[in-house]
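Researcher: Quick test of sequence recovery. Tokens follow.
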């Protein structure tokens, strides 16, 4: 059994296609198929269910897949550690990130990292927190930037490091009646039209927790907080958004009324698996994320706070 065979199998399972897997790993489809069959013979199990329109992992393959990905990670780390002796000459980093992290941290991190390590293959997949968690847990991603929900969900084989924190504030159009209300109560929000994040995103979980779905008249769903801001400014509905969104976009048409509840906090954290040692290329990215998040937090704390209804 060779590491190439494991890599071919993992790619075939991930793509659900021998053709796409062969394109990714840079070999011909007959070669890839033959090597996977040899792996099946070596392990004495059927690993792929071959169909006319693609392939599916067998029950045995699903059981073995976490171990396969762990073995591939160990092989990659070994090769990168050897390469690190003479500088980081190669490597691969697969990062998953929520929109908040993409907008605040990654525009600063990605260009600098790629400039410093041009030979490292770097890719980012933007998604909701739960999807990123699942992909880091399964080994599809090396590192994840997710919103901490304040629960023990990050545990088991995942470890988390807090990076940045911000308030979640009520945002309404300046023309909205709530904009001039001395204090907004939760009861005042019943029946209001809402602009919310899609399911699977932390902001949506937050709104659903504080304001039960039957009380929400959801008129607009999005995966981007800046789209939410535009809809609120246009009077489409009200929204709960990170305070940084208004700082960055000078939202002159948005008001933040006083509320009778303390603003919830949104924390972006970095997650990775605890049962694998990060490869050198991943360790360099971790260092860059820690440095940039610390710098952002220092600068953000110096900005004057947005006053209510301003």
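Model:
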């Amino acid at each position: 059994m060779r590491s190439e065979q494991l890599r071919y199998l993992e790619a075939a399972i991930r793509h659900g296609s021998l053709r796409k897997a062969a394109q990714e790993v840079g070999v011909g489809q007959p070669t890839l198929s033959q090597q996977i069959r040899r792996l099946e013979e070596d392990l004495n199990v059927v690993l792929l269910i071959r169909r006319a329109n693609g392939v599916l992992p067998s029950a045995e393959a699903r059981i073995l897949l976490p171990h396969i990905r762990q073995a591939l990670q160990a092989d990659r780390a070994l090769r990168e550690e050897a390469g690190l002796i003479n500088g980081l000459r190669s490597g691969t980093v697969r990062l998953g990130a929520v929109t908040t992290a993409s907008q605040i941290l990654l525009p600063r991190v990605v260009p600098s990292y790629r400039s410093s390590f041009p030979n490292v293959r770097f890719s980012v997949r933007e998604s909701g927190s739960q999807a990123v968690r699942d992909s880091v847990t399964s080994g599809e991603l090396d590192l994840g930037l997710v919103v901490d929900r304040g629960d023990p969900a990050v545990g088991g084989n995942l470890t988390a490091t807090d990076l940045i924190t911000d308030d979640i504030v009520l945002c309404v159009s300046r023309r909205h009646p709530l904009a001039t209300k001395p204090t907004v109560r939760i009861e005042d929000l019943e029946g209001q039209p809402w602009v919310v994040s899609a399911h699977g995103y932390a902001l949506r979980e937050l709104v659903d927790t504080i304001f039960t779905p039957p009380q929400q008249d959801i008129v607009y769903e999005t995966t981007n907080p800046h789209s939410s801001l535009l809809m609120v400014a246009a009077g489409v509905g009200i929204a709960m958004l990170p305070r940084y969104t208004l700082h960055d976009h000078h939202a002159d048409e948005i008001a933040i009324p006083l509320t009778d509840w303390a603003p919830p906090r949104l924390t972006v954290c970095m997650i990775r698996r605890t049962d694998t040692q990060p490869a050198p290329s991943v360790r360099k990215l971790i260092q860059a994320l820690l440095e940039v998040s610390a710098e952002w937090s220092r600068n953000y704390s110096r900005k004057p706070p947005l006053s209510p209804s301003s």
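The two ends are 64 Å apart (CA to CA).
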